[in-house]
Design brief:
It is a single chain. The protein is α/β, with parallel strands linked by helices and 267 residues long. Helix content is 39%, strand content 22%. The strands form 2 sheets. Strands 6-7-8-3-9-10 form a 6-stranded mixed sheet, sandwiched between helices. Helix 3 (113-126) crosses helix 4 (142-155). The longest helix has 30 residues, at 237-266. The chain is globular, with a radius of gyration of 19 Å.
């Protein structure tokens, strides 16, 4: 991570409204929090609580209706080089090889070819992709495609990494391998990570801090700092006590979601 670039995130009284009149829907309401350099934060909550909307506000893809977001000490007015985004859908170019996908952003930046080749080679080795550098996305498993997507973002060396349920569509064993790989990368680079998930176990396994969000409009229901030692064992009493506590919080919001859907049907 570049020593010249701050990696903090400040969210200040952010609200987001979609639509107007009868179609008006408030997705976020008055959210404030500060994420310091190097912290791994998970946004946790049921579908419809605004996790991805908040992440997109930090990414600069969907600016708040009110309030401000600062990333690296700068007001977010759109996407920027201090933030890298990993999506659930991989977002790879199907006509490019693995190596070409990872190199793409560096080429756009105008980096010298020798430097690009060196960085791509290093990242593919770290992520276990060296033997697949000339393969195309269609020839890879879901887990490998997600490794390529992560490598492409890491190539740009953004100090803030934003991840929108990146392992949600991957089988359990591959997911755990990718979680461990992400933790290793985070430990080596010290990047700030904001990670959206609906998995309670995943959030406890990964995060320094968990922000539990309420069902619409999304607010922060609980801001929980974790002090569990790493690497974390999902079978320990401490892990499972946290899992029970968070399950109760999330289920309360899931129940609110179901009740809102019932009222909408009746109306």
């Amino acid at each position: 991570m570049s020593a010249k670039m701050s990696a903090s995130v400040e969210i200040n009284k952010v609200s987001k409204v979609f639509g107007e009149g009868e179609k008006r829907m408030q997705a976020l309401q008055d959210i404030s929090c500060t994420i310091p350099d190097g912290q791994f934060v998970c946004l946790l909550g049921p579908s419809g609580c605004g996790k991805s909307t908040l992440l997109n506000a930090v990414a600069g893809f969907a600016l708040p209706s009110s309030g401000d977001v600062y990333a690296g000490g700068k007001l977010v007015t759109g996407p920027g080089p201090e933030r890298g985004m990993v999506f659930q859908e991989y977002a790879l170019f199907p006509w490019m090889t693995v190596a070409q996908n990872v190199a793409f952003g560096l080429e756009i930046k105008g980096m010298a070819k020798a430097q690009i080749d060196e960085r791509v080679h290093s990242l593919l080795a770290k992520l276990g992709l060296s033997d697949f550098r000339q393969r195309y996305p269609k020839d890879l498993s879901g887990g490998m495609r997600q490794r390529v997507a992560i490598a492409r973002v890491l190539a740009l060396d953004a100090p803030i990494l934003l991840m929108d349920e990146p392992f949600g569509a991957i089988d359990a064993l591959t997911r755990r391998n990718l979680q461990d790989e992400l933790l290793r990368i985070w430990g080596e680079t010290g990047k700030t990570i904001l990670f959206v998930t609906h998995s309670i176990e995943e959030s406890i396994y990964l995060a320094d801090r968990i922000l539990v969000m309420t069902y619409r409009p999304g607010t922060i229901k609980r801001d929980l700092s974790l002090n569990l030692p790493r690497p974390r064992d999902t079978a320990t009493p401490e892990f499972n006590e946290l899992k029970r506590e968070l399950s109760a919080l999330v289920m309360q919001e899931q129940q609110r979601h179901l009740e809102a859907e019932k009222r909408a049907v009746c109306d």
